[in-house]
Amino acid sequence: MTVCVLHAAAEMFPLLKTGGLADVVGALPPAQSQLGTDARVVLPGFPAVLAGLADLEPVADLGGAFGAGNVRLERGVLKPHGVTVYVVRADPFYDRPGNPYMDAANHPYADNDRRFALLGWTAARIATGADPAWKPHIVHAHDWHAGLAPAYLRAFERSGAPHVASVMTVHNLAYQGTFPASEFGALQLPGDFYAMEGLEFYGHVSFLKAGLYYADRITTVSPTYAREIQTQAHGAGLHGLLQTRTHDITGILNGVDYSIWSPSVDESIASKYTAAKPGSGKSKCKAALQERMGLAKDDDALLFGVVSRLTEQKGLDLLLSAVPDIVQRGGQLVVLGTGDPALETGMKNAAAAHPGAVAVELGFDETLSHSIIAGSDIVMVPSRFEPCGLTQLYALAYGSLPLVHRVGGLADTVADSSLENLADDLATGFVFDTFDRAGIVGAIRRAFALKARRTDWKAVVKRAMGQNFGWEAAALAYAEVYQGLLGP
Ligand code: ADP
Ligand code: GLC
């Protein structure tokens, strides 16, 4: 039997991206198709989504819902890999300026609960026959935006619809989609769902909790994060529920789409290079990056790169405290990011204090992100917590050694250049244990020390580039989760 899966999510690369969620939703379905699964995606009809799909055609009229006017279901194809994408067409909800979640002034849209309830509801409608030509066996919801999908499935089942299995994937427990209890009435769910044994969370409606409570299985994006979220320290208030579901939780590490993130095929970098011979190609990328960012053009300066959302999660305040340690040792730092105004200002101040050594670009720039991953010697991901993290995986592929905090997916994917790891041929980067200045500075010093040992440095770069985090392993692991729901 061909397993049919419907992914419900808010973002999908290359249509629309604000973070790693988009990369995952862009890469997992084609990897699943390779294994024979019929994997499709449902997205809100944001303008960029509509513009990026080919062969868009109407599928069904879903009637009026959530005050969005008349909602239509459309279906298109995402080229080149040919994944079928359903679109929730509700222009009053989705045809707006700004990013998917916030207006142009960075304020969350006041009706986000209804905008994303519509996504979960539509996923459940597709699962119960809205497209006469196709029905999934499994609805696979990603993050809080799609968290109500398992709740609607349960509600429809109660009204006589057949059971459709669901999987909830947590990409980040810090974003929960909580809304005032007074909004519950607008969600078209049975009244008793607003309960502790349901989607109520400390007097609010929680979309993420709905997904965690009503889904048949829960996955998250690394084995370490799967353990962490079941502890009080990292459970963001949901550890109690997660502990009761411990046997339904699986940590599945994200992968890398090497057709996009490989220095040997990357059209957006200054010079392509391979793992067999990174040398001059990588140096050209570094020189081009230094030039583009206004840094001193010096191949010997150890260049640290950051590509990141500028939020508390990412630990960049700690990095800011260590900037003098990088610069005093002759290193350079380049940062691409956007987010919290305080962090944006901190970055700009650092650049102003160290002209030629620290350069910052505020904004979201896909092409520059590739240039930084390729042109840096070190890519820093000092996150307080990190469910998986993709930039350190991209860094490995480009031979730019990741420097990370030992947490979540970072702990699962990077091996420190300690003496014993160097001796045993295991090192792929730099890992620090304690989230404080001493921790990060220790790792920075290790990076300078390794750079001074040319042979060891080259060996670590080679090992980093040889790591395989392709999507096939994850696709197989998800297939196993689905199999557990559908039976042999
Ligand atoms: P998160 O999803 O928490 O932001 P990940 O490491 O999983 O972190 O994924 C981040 C993704 O977003 C990567 O593809 C990274 O390159 C990209 N990214 C983050 N910030 C920017 C930016 N300012 N410009 C371009 N790409 C960015
Ligand atoms: C989230 C997490 C990040 C993860 C990404 C994709 O945004 O913060 O760690 O890699 O989702 O799963």
UniProtKB/TrEMBL annotation:
Pathway: Glycan biosynthesis; glycogen biosynthesis. ADP-alpha-D-glucose binds at K17. The keyword Cytoplasm does not apply. Residues 294-458 form the Glycosyl transferase family domain. Keywords: Glycogen biosynthesis, Glycosyltransferase, Transferase. It comes from Caballeronia catudaia. InterPro entries: Glyco_trans_1, GS/SS, Starch_synth_cat_dom. GO terms for biological process: glycogen biosynthetic process. Residues 5-243 form the Starch synthase catalytic domain. Belongs to the glycosyltransferase 1 family. Bacterial/plant glycogen synthase subfamily. It catalyses: [(1->4)-alpha-D-glucosyl](n) + ADP-alpha-D-glucose = [(1->4)-alpha-D-glucosyl](n+1) + ADP + H(+). GO terms for molecular function: alpha-1,4-glucan glucosyltransferase (ADP-glucose donor) activity; alpha-1,4-glucan glucosyltransferase (UDP-glucose donor) activity. This is Glycogen synthase. NCBIfam families: glgA (TIGR02095), PRK00654.1-2 (NF001899). One of its GO terms (cellular component) is cytosol. Synthesizes alpha-1,4-glucan chains using ADP-glucose. Coiled coil: none annotated. Its EC number is 2.4.1.21. SUPFAM superfamilies: UDP-Glycosyltransferase/glycogen phosphorylase.
